[in-house]
Amino acid sequence: MRIAFHAPMKSPTHPVPSGDRRMAQLLVKALERSGHEVELVSELSTHQREPDLARFATIERAAAGEAARLRALWKCEGAPDLWFTYHPYYKAPDMIGPGLAAAFGIPYLTAEASYSARRNAGLWAKTQAVTLQSVKQAALNICFTRRDRDGLLAAVPDAALDMLLPFIDTAAYPERSPAVDPSRLVCIAMMRSGDKYASYEMLARALDKLRHLPWTLSVVGDGALRREVMALFAGLPPQRIEWRLRLEAPEVTSVLSGAGIYVWPGCGEAYGLAYLEAQAVGLPVVAQHVAGVPEVVVNGQTGLLTPPGDVEAFASAIERLLGNERERMMMADAAWRFVHEERSLEVAAVRLAAMLAKVAGA
């Protein structure tokens, strides 16, 4: 099929790396791997960090312009067979796809749509309504986590839903080699306000409780709060922390391969592709049992998930793996198998192909 692809949160061609951009890219690859022709039909971002009525009015006008452009183009060249929107939610609603799909009589699909009734206030109530209508119209809403699925079901009990668990392209991680330094910890995350900063803060507090152990930490990530994040770790001996900041993908893989444990609290994490990338090289994970993290880390098998907000438990879990080489190695093996056997691009492509075949048949 010819598939019109749109990611209103962040285009897969956006210059700034993030988990959202990476997942958009992976979905395009999985669809193409299934034999479909995918076209990025618009790079318009409807994303707003904070509600701004003036900016939203500008976005509305831009969306109307994009819809008019595509409508004229499709009348001349023919419409695609299907519209696929990745990650519509209250801060980034799809303001183009539903109208065009209805006008041209083609199926409309979403992936990782989310809805939360507690956001229904002010401008967010309006953008939530847009997202809710998208979910109702969709021939299929593909959910990555049970939390998102349950949220959509609560709002639209008769919504068409199916599950596609988070995945990565494992081609970049073909072999599992023993850790160069089993006592080296590593984390990968953007340095920005909100949940990311809260996770950095929790990690710094946990490591402060582990000064008696011979660990070091590599930090991969950058962002507007670089100075503030670095200040969180200022009380620790500087030789303990290696700031790698922004790296290209091959360098990130190298950093992961040289470490022994992936540590990231994951406050509010939708799921976190970095957890899968770490496990793909054979790193066990220490994180919190929160939000979507349990969708990508198997507690007790590929890592340890601790109670939300419990710094002591998080620190103890790190200490447990640092002090138990046998358990760390067992989890490392399980982590590598988990990602390569269950969460690969190939597995996702097969699953997506089956979903789209049902939609096309209907």
Automatic annotation (TrEMBL):
Record key words, sorted: Transferase
Keyword DNA repair: no
Domain of life per record: Bacteria
Keyword Transferase attributed: yes
Gene Ontology MF annotations: glycosyltransferase activity
Pfam families hit by this protein: Glyco_trans_1_4 (PF13692)
InterPro entries in UniProt: Glycosyltransferase_grp1
Any coiled-coil regions, as ranges: none
Protein's name according to its UniProt entry: Glycosyltransferase family 1 protein
Organism lineage string: Bacteria, Pseudomonadati, Pseudomonadota, Alphaproteobacteria, Hyphomicrobiales
